[in-house]
């Protein structure tokens, strides 16, 4: 958790107030920073929750994150009939403002560390004061035990703070490692059969969203095969025009809907309800085959003998299978009892020792956790005390617990990429599970998104880098997971999700070609040539040699190729229109997505490709830092905040090249007369097409005050000039021998 404490508090409050039975809800907060600030903020949050939760449930408040509820510019009296609502709302708003003041005081206090170190509420020293290790193990239950109830005397959901141990020399696997630690702690303390994953910068916007997810999970026909229910991501605080396509509606409202008709959507990292058994690496349950057809078209006596034998064989085989299943079930139950008892006295029984060894190799050396994995419907051992469970919870979040286990390989969130969400969903669907895409009328979850240009490009860079890492890993969907339960069309979608950064290379070539053709006077389309005197062929020569009077003028691209090009263009446009109609996506949202695809492809995807190659081939980790350069105040002020980053250089270079190319092309056409305007129109169209796609990028550079750092202009003009001069110097459109000059034989005197 790296978000400000107030944002995290709103996320926690929205989960605690969800419309679901409180005894079945537990909120686990992962603090990878082991900060005293987060611990104290959660303590304050638990106190405020005792008043906020009953207020939300009494008046059906939506959303149930107080910061966003009180910030709504709507008529909050609409559909409210309770006479006490106005008075209690004013009191609750005043209490929330006091709560914010206390959180802000904690933030200012945390900036100055006391000389003697931090002290916890019970007077004991904060474990993080020890400088000999990075972070420590800590699990603390704030709500849901010892009779802690709300102000109306009702039970509250459980709230647990978790800080896993982190030491130098250990790979902690960032978010994936934190999620695996939370999964083990939750299995020991509550062991619910379903998990909700929400990032700290998101909150529950629809309190009934969990019930909708459970309708899929608990479906009696197909629910057992569902590994997760994914909700679309929706965001607050985005400008009206969505300049940098933060809403990503084409992906969430078209692509994900389409995948829902195959084997389900991919996991996007947040707003997802999981089945715990699927995360443990188990295969999906196999559907029972329908009973075989009976022979009713022939007389009974013709099938009597054979039929009786087949029936006897089937009865015997089914009896054997039942006996084997009962024997295996008894072994598992006996092994489970031995696990809970500490596995004592079974060293001489190899049949009982082997299952336990396999469990430890897969899940780690925690008897309590291993026992919880065998309980498909969840639940904790009877008679277990909170203190004993917390002690075991601290054991499973130690930094060396995952050593020599299958965590991150076959169990839990998968390691090996910064986009662990794609890998995790891919692994589960390779085991035969399917997922479901749930789009309620009221958005289930909302969050914040980076709305300025530099932060948005770095977000896209991170996603693209994760795809490149998966492409070079053993889990690449091109060659991994065959023979499992992954459908072919679903595999194609995963392949598309890991190969798209490679499209940056042809994209940059296409964006550069119109500018170079305008600067050099070359043609965009391939031309046909005729033999020269020396037997060679000139396929793109723009100058007619006087030594070859029979050399005909250049011939444009053939009609056949033109028809193919137009057919492809029209089919792509028609497909886009049909997708927009089907997904109910507005044309301006689709156009914003197209624009940012070009911007991101020319910058973030290209950098991710180079960074991934350096990491895989040379073992070099390259980090692109962002330095703030200034910003404005007011609504959407972050939209105009400019931050220098090297990701801005490639698209700006393309923009300058095409602008200069348009100016040079028009100038040449004016100077050379009417004949040059015909071939020029095609070049101008494609160059302007590139400029129009990069227009949001240009607006992001200019900002609200029309300021542009000098370093960007210098580097971009320098690179554009160098590439232009090199192209002119090594011009492939001019024959190697040059123009042949001969004396005309006329006496000019």
UniProtKB/TrEMBL annotation:
Listed GO molecular functions?
A: cellulose synthase (UDP-forming) activity; zinc ion binding
Give compartment(s): Cell membrane
Q: Where are the transmembrane segments?
A: 499-519, 557-576, 596-618, 639-660, 680-698, 710-728
Signal peptide position in this chain?
A: none
Q: Where is the active site?
A: 32, 421
Q: Which GO terms describe its cellular component?
A: plasma membrane
Quick one: which residues bind Mn(2+)?
Answer: 175, 199
EC numbers: 2.4.1.12
Q: Which SUPFAM superfamilies match?
A: Nucleotide-diphospho-sugar transferases
Q: Which cofactor does it need?
A: Mn(2+); Zn(2+)
Q: According to Swiss-Prot or TrEMBL, what is its membrane topology?
A: Multi-pass membrane protein
* Binding annotation for UDP-alpha-D-glucose: 2-3, 32, 174
GO BP terms: namely:
cell wall organization; cellulose biosynthetic process
Principal location class: membrane
Q: Which reaction does it catalyse?
A: [(1->4)-beta-D-glucosyl](n) + UDP-alpha-D-glucose = [(1->4)-beta-D-glucosyl](n+1) + UDP + H(+)
Q: Which InterPro entries match?
A: Cellulose_synth (IPR005150), Nucleotide-diphossugar_trans (IPR029044)
Q: In which pathway does it act?
A: Glycan metabolism; plant cellulose biosynthesis
- Asked if Cytoplasm is a keyword of the record, the answer is no
Annotated keywords = Cell membrane, Cell wall biogenesis/degradation, Cellulose biosynthesis, Glycosyltransferase, Manganese, Membrane, Metal-binding, Transferase, Transmembrane, Transmembrane helix, Zinc, Zinc-finger
Which family is this protein grouped under?
Belongs to the glycosyltransferase 2 family. Plant cellulose synthase subfamily.
This chain belongs to the protein called cellulose synthase (UDP-forming)
